[in-house]
Each structure stands twice: as structure tokens, then as C-alpha cells.
Amino acid sequence: MSAPLVLMVLSAQGMETALRIRSGYPDAVIHGLEGRVQGADQMFSNFGETLRQQYGNGNPIAALCSAGITIRALATVLDNKGAEPPVLAIADDGSAVVPLLGGTTGVNVLARQLSKILDVLPAITTSGELRFGTCLLNPPAEFHLKNPADGKRFIADLLAGKKVHIEGVAPWLEEARLPVDADGPMHIRITPLDLAPQSNELIFHPKTVVIGLTGEARTEDVRNALAAMNIAHSSVACVAITEAESAKPYFPQIAADLGAPLRIVATDHATAKSLVSAFIEKPVNLTGDDSLAIAIAATPGDIILVGHKRGRLAVIGLGPGDPNFMIPAVKQELQHAEDILGYETYVRMAGSFRSDQTIHMTDNREEMQRARHAFALAASGRSVVMISSGDPGVFAMGAAVVEALHESADPAWHSVDLQILPGVSAAMAAASRSGAPLGHDFCILSLSDNLKPWDIIEKRIALAAEADFAMAFYNPISKPRPWQLPRAIEILRQYRAPETPIVLGRDIGRPAETLRVITLAELTPEQVDMRTVILVGSSLTQSFDRIDGGKWVYTPRWYGTKPTG
Ligand code: SAH
């Protein structure tokens, strides 16, 4: 899964260019400068900080501004040449594409692609690349350069006029304008074998090896088998397993240990040997037995991708609304998703999606049905994101998804890579806006009696009030549930003083946000709706005036008597 291209846009004209780029390069995410740019996927306020953060995350970046601004902004972090992502500057009117950084991670390839979309010539400055039309140090994904450290000298020698002998099959090199000569002193070897490079030699490992596994397996056995055949790990194209065995947790682990993708194949009673044969019509080499087999294809192109990859289901929390309150792991998950499921409001809140992402908007109130739909998609090999607001584990889809898995005996569902990613829940968001009303022990209650009986809710409010917890009420009131909140307030008043601070947070983190601090005596149901979270103070919760006319609220961390000192 390669990282999506980040387009950093500073002006309205830059935005036009960014949209042109994205129409030809859908896997791009537009980040716009706040106040200057409309319609971006994500907003930023500090160019330098955002750029350095994206660079640090390893995302390819195209900044639609001058090369100078871009380089200056990255100057302090430019010390790690090996790992750097491609960085380009693009004139905001789209008239120039300048690759700046990331020679070994494909900046020139990217520059060519983007130039083509913008119909200009890229400003390629790398001499080896200009002469040979390809960057030897940045081969296509299905080849891996074993000894990149030797690359610079190798290219310098070629530039100085030395000839090169190529051994092995690499269509991409055939297209390059290399000075080929069978007797040349320089060597390029394409081989899946784990050989030590000779002097003046570059070794590329092609992804031509398929490993089939059935039954019990350990990474060590696979490593030993590869070592016995002297095969380089980076030549492993995939690890193949059968769908029936896809729930076994050690298979994904072995694939991860080898750094290779897992392919799940729908065949019954397959031996490892028959499994790998499905991938390669004419294997150069095929060894193994029923449980572990290895086959080598002549070229990466000879591997037929049967089966599907391991599906992923991420149940994510968007936070209350403001993208700055969304954790970075959730943002990444949204970018990598192939299918997005959720209520329309939340899907819209999540930002814009690319045309290659499928959105399944749902107003289906049946949570279990939605959860099963998500699993069915993920089990077929898709990357699925299920969206909740706030935190997915707080009155949201998290529990339904895990419950659906619990109820299922389908191994394909259990083999899905399930991840639950947290978010800032409404109570936390509202609490932080008002100070620290949940600073000591507290509990969160939903006042909705749709899924639980009302007498349980009453009992919980009464006991929590008696135990002197601070409280957060979610789903406080709605048209079909008009009397429940008044009853809850009545119970609170039996245990709490009239001056107990109450925080009413409405649409926190959204454009219509309001926050009010009142007392329990002042609380009436008319002040509250479904978009409100109510925070109720404990007996120790304090509030005092703040300079802007509002109030600070906090619950101290001590209890009973205030500690001295
Ligand atoms: N998973 C969500 C809660 C969903 S239940 C979370 O963790 O925040 C829906 C209830 O959450 C609403 O009725 C309201 O009480 C509260 N809520 C959700 N988002 C809110 C927001 N931005 N501001 C105030 N309350 C919110």
C-alpha cells in the first residue's frame, strides 16, 4: 500500500492546478492553506510545519509554490537521504514541475507522470537519469536493488563511458538506454538467488517466488526452505494460503515476517504444491510437499495473481467533527480505504473521497446488519472503513462489529485484519472546552432507552449520583423520547445541590458549536437536543468566571479534604 501523494496548495490558482493533477492522479490528497484555499480535502494553517510532518510520515509531496519556499521549509529535516519520500515543487499555474528530493524513491518517475498531466516538460536534473532514461536506483516495484550503496559509483562509471553486461530478464532495463556490451566490465544481474554482489555489480531481485503454505507452519521453516534454495527474501512475490485456512493467525505473521503480501485462494483440499502451481504456469523450479512449497517464475510478469489479498476492516472514530481532533492513524485509514461505510452525516464529516473509493452511505438503523455488510466486503479482500463519530467504542459501531464477528463461524471473517481506531468522544471534547469537569472519577451514560430498558437507566443515574460520580449524558433527548430527560434531571436533583455545575456542549468541534455552563437548578430539557452532550458535576466540581464572559469548570483530583502543600 503506497502512501498517497500530498498536494500542498497555497493559492486559488494552485487549487485549480491541484484539481487538474488529481483528475489524472486520483490517489492524491489536496491540503489547502486555511483562509486562502477553498474545497481542499484537508486544511492546514502552518505550511512549514505541515510539510515537515508529511515529509516525516514518508508521504510523497508536491508543493504548489516555489522551489525555494519548499526547500527552505524542509531544510531542518534534510539529513536522512536514504529514507526520504519524493518531494517536488510545482509552479502554482502548472507551468513547471521541479523534482527536488527523493531520487531513490521515484521523484523523477512522479515528475514525469505529473508533467504529462499538466502537459509540460519535467525539470529533470539527475544526469544518470537523463542519459539512460531510467533511474537504476529506483527500479519498478517488482524489482528490488540489493546493493543500493554501490549505485552511485556504478552510475558514475557508466557516465564515464564504461559498458555494462546484463544477466537475467528485466523488461524495464531493456527499455533503458544503457551502454550494453556482453564483454563490458560492469555487471547487472537479475536473480532471485541470494548472491553476494561482485565489484562493479548491481544485483536486482525480481519478485518471482511464490510460497505455498497449508496446515501448520512457522516462519523459521519457511526461512530454512528459502535458505536451502538460496532464495533472497525480497524475491518473494507472495505467500499463498487456502481460504479454508485463512483464519489461522500464523499465516499473516509469516507473510509479515517475510515482508510479502498474503494471497488467499479459494481451493479446497489443496496441497502446498498445487497451491503455488495455480500462480505460475511454467515454474522454473518447484519444490516442496503438501505443507510447504516454493516455486519460481521466469519473470515477475509470469505470476498470475489468483485469489485475493487479506481484507481489512477498520472501525474508526472521527472525533467530534474538527479534523484537527482526528488522530493521524484514522486519517491514513480513510486515505487507504477502498470501501467506506457509515451514516451520511458522518461520511460527509470525514471529508472528500476519491473516485476510486466506494461509499456505502447507509441510513440503516440495524447496526448488526451494517456490521455484517462490512465483514462480507472485507472477507472478499477489500479494505473497508466503518465510520463512527467521536469514538467507535462509545455508543457507536465498535461493539456491533465485534459482536458480529463473535456470532460468525466463517473463517473468512475471522481472518480479516480487524482494527478499531479510537477517536475523541463527545464527552472529552466538551469537557476540554470547559476546563476539566471530568477531572476525577466519572461515568458515561446514554439516556436512550431504544436498546435498554428505562428502569436500568434510572437505576444507573441514581447509583452514579449517590456514588458522587461526575457524569456525561449522551443521546439526552429526542422527539420520540420526550419525558426521559426531565425524569433524569429529577433524579439528579435528589442527590446533587442546585448549584452543581452543568456543561451543555452542542455540536462541539463543528461550525455550529456552542458551549454553556449553567447550574443544575437552571437545567431544563428545552436547552438540550440530540446534538448536545450534558456534563454533570460531582459534589466537588467547581466553576468560576473566565475573562471572556464564560465560565471555567473543573473537578479536583483530590477527594474529601484538599491536600496541603
Ligand atoms: N460515538 C460518539 C457518540 C455517539 S452517540 C462519541 O464518542 O462521541 C450520539 C450522542 O453523542 C449525541 O446524542 C450527543 O449526545 C453526543 N455527541 C456526539 N457528537 C457530539 C458533538 N460534536 N457535540 C456534542 N455532543 C455530541
The distinct ligands, each listed once, are:
S-adenosyl-L-homocysteine
Number of helices: 18
> What is the assembly state of the chains in this entry?
single chain
- Please give the alpha-carbon distance between the first and last residues: 55 Å
Got a strand count?
29
Biggest β-sheet: strands ordered side by side in the sheet: 3-2-1-4-5-6
In angstroms, what is the radius of gyration? Answer: 29 Å
Query: At CATH's second level, what is the architecture of the largest domain?
Result: 2-Layer Sandwich
Class from secondary-structure proportions: alpha/beta
CATH superfamily of the largest domain: Tetrapyrrole methylase, C-terminal domain
- Estimate percent helicity: 25-40%
DSSP strand content = 15-25%
- CATH C-level class of the largest domain is Alpha Beta
| Unreliable segments of 5+ consecutive residues | none
Lay out the secondary structure.
Blueprint: E1 5-9, H1 12-24, E2 28-33, E3 42-44, H2 47-56, E4 61-64, H3 67-74, E5 87-90, E6 97-101, H4 107-118, H5 127-132, E7 143-145, H6 151-159, E8 164-167, H7 171-175, E9 186-190, E10 201-206, E11 209-213, H8 219-228, E12 236-242, H9 250-258, E13 262-265, H10 272-277, E14 285-288, E15 292-296, E16 308-309, E17 312-317, H11 328-336, E18 339-343, H12 344-349, E19 358-362, H13 367-379, E20 383-388, H14 397-407, H15 411-414, E21 417-421, H16 426-434, E22 435-436, E23 442-446, H17 454-466, E24 470-474, H18 484-495, E25 501-506, E26 514-519, E27 532-536, E28 542-545, E29 551-554
The chain binds S-adenosyl-L-homocysteine (SAH).
